[in-house]
Amino acid sequence: MQIMKLDTLAQSIGEWLRGTGPESDIVMSSRVRLARNLPQYPFVSRASEQDRADIERFLRERIAMSSAGPGLESIDVGGLEEIDRQFLVERQLISREHADAQGARSVAIDKLEQVSLMINEEDHLRIQCIHSGLDLRGVWEQIKVVDEQIEQFVPYAFHPRFGYLTACPTNVGTGIRVSVMLHLPALVITRQIDKVFRSLHKISLAVRGLYGEGSQAMGDFYQISNQTTLGKSEEELVEQVGDVVPVLIDYERRAREFLVRETEQNVHDQVSRAYGILRTAQTISAEETMQLLSRVRMGVLLGLIGDVKIADINSLLVRTQPAHLQKLRGIELDTKDRNIERARYLRQHFEAGGQNVN
Amino acid sequence: MKCQQCDKQAVFHITELETGAVRELHLCEDHARVYLNQTEGGGGSADEAEDAAAAGGAAGQLGVGQTADELAALDQKACDMCGITFFEFRNQGRLGCPHDYVQFAKELEPLIVNIHGATEHTGRRPSRSPTTVETAAASGTAELTGVIGLRREMKDAIACEDYEKAKENRDAIRAIEDRWIPPARPDSQE
């Protein structure tokens, strides 16, 4: 049942990959997550196997009876094969930590894949909401409602001074992490990206790669998020991240204009070569694919490539990941065969003008 | 690269994961020795306590005016509910249960200031939670975390075949849960 369900998911893409929404040429997605815990159990890392099973069941049943319940489907992450857990990570429905954890754990997701509720990650409950483009306000309004709905049936661990209590003191208070995923190829090419990041660190913002904590930035995709969670209200923290995004968008746009103005032939050449490789390669790694898709994405936005849609590139970024490739193909493949399958998939996709994918 | 605490060349490059947050330190030999002594709870010089505190070592912050014995005693301090010691927390960077924030409040505060630059939550509150410190003792969280301790006692009682005691524990847990866990919606129960 579970695997059937995941195979159906593989045929579609999450809402956050649609490539629509404000500023979606640079802002891939906007995300907010809330960390919540039950007061009557130890935090996950100290919970026994029995505790974890009880926590999982309690939260799953209680979420189901809340008004948030009807739109959600639960997946038993602990009972999944590794490839299926990886598949959920690639879609950003669960974190890598959740995939690799031990014991009872699950995730509840909605049909649009905007809302995901991880049970027994680092905290008992992690509520996540993600939208396409720049829409932090919208994401916050949606997640606030989900949090309130669940709270009708779930007691949250809360301290009058320290706020929502979390397993790690770095999340205590609001338990909120507000983040945007940005595509910043021109800042990378013009070597301004490090300078930008240094100034972000100074104002307490963190920069991470595509798949969150500890992940490398791949294909010029970066996540910007708040670092502190206590002392400011949720709205203030949403604003703190939201305020810096227009500045980054402006930098990236200017860098793109500069590239076109000063080195158009060069950029056009780079973009065209990237596109050429993606359309003709016979074997290709996930990293190279990501890098080249990033270049092509920029090329499309600069009007240098005409026949590719942004939504298609966004979708390829996820579908050429290892677990997705294997799901789409329906068999397990080792690295070498995956690289061959990835190249085949890309060639087929571009030959058909992007029509075969859905 | 210069040492973060003086003008000498930094020769030690330390990545600190202890508090769950990754911090990079670049120190000269002397300051590295001071820092490492402190983070090991060895009661090193407290002169640099402030800088070490900024660097995120929990023990470094506690080094102010404390002897090695006091630090060792602190490390032994355990949560009444989940049993985690402060030493275990320092090692793992993860707390054991929500009650730790009450039990270790004094010790955690400098760490929380260091991470967030604040100690007062100003955001949303669950609708059932108290808004003042005074009523904290009566709050759901305070009573419900008691269940963690009771569950441990019950387990021990069963192990010792003291079923009378285990039954008492079970009844106490039920009473607290009935009082503080919102009623289930009857028509949607599985």
Write the topology of this structure.
The complex is a heterodimer of chains A (358) and B (190).
Chain A: H1 2-10, E1 27-36, H2 49-65, E2 72-76, H3 82-90, H4 96-100, E3 106-110, E4 115-119, E5 125-132, H5 136-151, E6 158-159, E7 163-164, E8 176-183, H6 185-189, H7 193-202, E9 205-208, E10 221-226, H8 234-280, H9 286-301, H10 310-319, H11 322-329, H12 335-351
Antiparallel strand pairs in A: 1-5, 1-8, 2-3, 3-4, 4-5, 6-7, 8-10, 9-10
Helix pairs in contact in A: 3-11, 8-9, 9-10, 11-12
Chain B: E1 12-16, E2 23-27, H1 29-39, H2 49-54, H3 58-62, H4 68-76, H5 86-92, H6 100-103, H7 105-116, H8 140-159, H9 163-180
Antiparallel strand pairs in B: 1-2
Helix pairs in contact in B: 8-9
Structure, described:
The complex is a heterodimer of chains A (358) and B (190). Chain A is of the alpha+beta class and 358 residues long. Helix content of chain A is 47%, strand content 15%. In chain A, helix 3 packs across helix 11 and helix 11 packs across helix 12. Chain A is globular and about 65 Å long. The two termini of chain A are 22 Å apart. Helix content of chain B is 48%, strand content 5%. A two-stranded antiparallel ribbon of chain B has the order 1-2. In chain B, strand 1 and strand 2 form a beta hairpin. In chain B, helix 8 packs antiparallel against helix 9. The longest helix of chain B has 20 residues. About 14% of the residues of chain B have low confidence. At the A-B interface, helix 2, strand 6 and strand 7 of A face helix 7, helix 8 and helix 9 of B.
